[in-house]
């Protein structure tokens, strides 16, 4: 597939927008009219053509602009990308996974040739042509994880598995929903999930961890998570809260359609072969309310989900200052008709 | 889902590395190469063994992968001990399997991984338990990580790969031959290790228990102790099994595991290790007319006593009929 990449921004003048095709491909995360935390894990198998899950690694029209935004964030704060020394094998595993997947599914944009350990990587949209030796760090301009994730959409965490737990020992995290790699680095699955309300008592994390410890190579899984963001901003980090937190107060009944975004994370997990580590990818998608309501079913359903969302979840996701305004705005797009089952638009 | 990705392989080499141990080299024969894997991984082989009556019986056994193929490649290797009292998988491999035979092999799974933040690694193997341990030594040596290897065997002849390992690791390797009254002195070995050392042991059940027991007495934390108990599922008296959800009724034969009987009835049940360790095959029980014989290392004693679930890969029923929520 040949993509045409947008020239757009995720900060300052915020020119980000979705094409009609990107709207239809949006991974809408609600399959019913209410939301609660569950162990919503499924096999990461290919979804419908031109959907976010058509390929294991999804590259879309926002690729070039997102990679530019990541570079800006990294230049200001290099600690968004960190890796502990024992994660080097996992870094190479990740590089192999991403390069082979991108080259296989987007051959018009990426090419990978392998001759034993001699690899040749071509990234046309970013104008990269790199020959290197797989396994030899000195042949790349950055470490393998940083190198490949500067060229792949989505945030990434590398989890080491030991003591029947997963440890966040490396990552590239520049577009997170208000959590910090620098803070979570070295924590285990239960520790970094500690701030999440309700889910611990429901046993969600205990069951999810047990499942992930047995994740098999060749059988990746995925889940969806969501929050809301004011303005199409990728870098909603605690480090920069002073820059974006204030935007929550700027929502008015007049600007909801343009300012308020549903932010969905398509999270996928793969067992990595050499390191036995797990990679957790957090591929983020933004859609403004004006775009969302072009799909009648999504408008009705999101209105109902947001109106009935349990308070602890709304508080945790930080929706307090604009939830009521947004629900009121969405109510104009909800005629009360029943919604069809499943995620897809009608 | 169940067993995950399967690769079609052909037996490329068979070598007797000791009187009772054969090394098998298995090559993928449908084109693409096999994925790399980490030391401590195992694979599950699907064997179609011939029965005395002239039919075939499907046996699925887990084997540790030898060496490491960090680069991936065309072949994996395993070593198989001939154990006549087992359900027949190893006897089939030793007596019937020939070069050129085709088999199905699962993608590697690692339930016995190296601890990557350890400062030093003490590897202990008994008998055929050398297979994952040798892979660990190889990976550590390649990465330049400090380790020592202790390998116990009954007599000189039975120690598979002993000469090869001694040549590779020299002073980092010690052999113990029980016929010569040589015993692994765990306490002495552990006494001189720096903080942050991890211990790995694979071998017969009694040896593992002894070594871990000594390590605990010496004050080692459980988080630094790692063992792989290669539990070969045992046969037993036949019993009936009913699968409540799919409405299937079948019989578990005396040389069959519960899991194999469920698979033979056409149900794709979950599993990973087929050795009672990983927890993947845990299945809820609807009713049991008889006594549950729990043989796994996964359920706690309390869980075993209350009998709500069973690990189908190694456990069975002594009695008439087991009804499962499957
Ligand atoms: C192993 C890979 C995973 C990583 C690295 C990861 C990481 C995170 C992080 C950093 C947070 C934010 C916590 C905070 O507020 O500081 C989070 C939230 C959460 N995680 Fe995970 N997670 C993983 C897997 C899972 C899985 C498998 C589940 C399955 C149920 C899950 C469920 C959740 C939920 C429900 C939240 C709250 C999200 C919200 O309401 O916005 N996570 N996760
Ligand atoms: S398959 Fe691992 S415990 Fe049964």
Automatic annotation (TrEMBL), chain A:
InterPro entries: HODM_asu-like
Protein name: DUF3445 domain-containing protein
Organism: Neorhizobium lilium
Automatic annotation (TrEMBL), chain B:
GO MF annotation, one: oxidoreductase activity
Domain named FAD-binding FR-type: residues: 4-115
Keyword Lipid biosynthesis: no
Record-annotated 2Fe-2S ferredoxin-type domain positions: 239-326
InterPro entries assigned to the protein according to its UniProt record, in alphabetical order: 2Fe-2S_ferredoxin-like_sf (IPR036010), 2Fe-2S_ferredoxin-type (IPR001041), 2Fe2S_fd_BS (IPR006058), Beta-grasp_dom_sf (IPR012675), DmmA-like_N (IPR054582), FAD-bd_FR_type (IPR017927), FNR_nucleotide-bd (IPR039261), MRET (IPR050415)
Entry cofactors: FMN
Pfam families, per the entry: DmmA-like_N, Fer2
Keywords: 2Fe-2S, Flavoprotein, FMN, Iron, Iron-sulfur, Metal-binding, Oxidoreductase
Entries under SUPFAM superfamilies matching the protein: 2Fe-2S ferredoxin-like (SSF54292), Ferredoxin reductase-like, C-terminal NADP-linked domain (SSF52343), Riboflavin synthase domain-like (SSF63380)
UniProt entry tagged with the keyword Metal-binding: yes
UniProt protein name: Oxidoreductase
